[in-house]
Design goal:
The chain is an alpha+beta fold and 311 residues long. It has a domain of 193 residues. The chain has eight helices and 13 strands.
Length: 311
């Protein structure tokens, strides 16, 4: 092969690598940086006094100090391309393989009517605390990858772990969610309405299918549902119990708040905040400031109330 042919082939390679691929969707972004991708000012660290917690004999009790704060200890990807992770900024592509079938996208362009509009997201959870040296250690660690979760792909299978959905799958109970939406947007989620996610709609079905064609709001719904699911599966122990933690298969929404870190950083809000208050410029075509469009990373803060004697 002569020198001219080599140069010609090199030019073709450069040209095709410089334009978007029509055969597949390749996503990329900055990997997570704890220093710049967490709203550290939202920890709201406070010392509340002295505490006494019961202990088994022969100790009987221990004394400690009471602290309250928000711990960034849960990170959730919501993605339209299967196996892509905004947390790592890598992985995943859609090229007509099984991964393409697992991928999510906005379905509104294919919908016959408004009632059929929906969005689907896969989601990944990374459970570990970013606070080293905090007064009360958080022992929750683990992860979840919905591409390997058949219940996340199917609304019908999701009922397996949420049999109570039959109580809330009616218009009256769903209309009540308007009350929760008003409360959330005022800064006060209603814990006695666990079937609602504020402006994000219904907690059920606990799957990746969301009846909303607003990509940012649908992403918030998917992330919130995964928080609910992790609680239901006893993978999260609520650290707001003072003398330890408590498993809450019915989540306590007010113990969580979140913000986006990909495609760009935004302020921190309660679960279910109306996306229109923060989504301006958040998800531009093709590429955001820190990652690909339609691929979100949510930093979730968990509320902690603890006695230092009882880590």
């Amino acid at each position: 092969m002569d020198r001219f042919t080599n140069k010609y082939l090199l030019l073709l390679v450069l040209l095709f690598s410089a334009v978007p691929s029509f055969a597949g969707i390749i996503k990329k972004g900055d990997s997570f940086n704890a220093g710049s991708d967490i709203n550290w000012d939202d920890i709201e660290f406070a010392f509340l006094g002295i505490c006494i917690c019961p202990r088994p004999p022969p100790v009987f009790y221990e004394e400690g100090e009471i602290y309250e704060y928000w711990d960034p200890s849960l990170f959730i990807d919501t993605v339209s391309v299967a196996n892509y992770s905004p947390f790592t900024g890598s992985g995943g592509d859609a090229e007509g393989t099984i991964a393409d079938e697992l991928g999510g996208k906005n379905k509104s362009s294919d919908a016959v009517s408004i009632a059929d509009e929906s969005t689907f997201f896969q989601a990944h959870a990374f459970i570990f605390s970013m606070m080293d040296g905090n007064p009360c250690e958080n022992d929750d660690t683990g992860g979840w990858w919905t591409e390997f979760d058949s219940m996340w792909q199917s609304d019908e299978l999701a009922v397996t772990i949420t049999p109570e959905v039959a109580l809330f799958a009616n218009k009256a109970m769903q209309l009540l969610c308007m009350t929760d939406a008003l409360a959330v947007n005022s800064g006060y989620p209603l814990d006695y309405m666990p079937w609602c996610i504020g402006s994000s709609g219904s907690t059920y079905p606990v799957s990746g299918h969301v009846d909303n064609d607003n990509i940012v709001q649908a992403s918030n719904t998917a992330a919130s549902r995964l928080i609910f699911k992790l609680n239901r599966l006893f993978m999260l122990c609520d650290p707001y119990l003072f003398c330890g933690c408590e498993y809450t298969p019915v989540w306590i929404k007010s113990h969580y708040k979140m913000h986006t870190a990909r495609p760009d950083l935004r302020a921190t809000y309660p679960i279910g905040k109306a996306a229109k208050t923060y989504d301006s410029g958040l998800n531009p075509p093709y590429e955001g400031v820190k990652g690909s469009n339609d691929e979100f990373l949510w930093v979730v803060f968990r509320k902690v109330l603890c006695c230092t004697c009882c880590e």
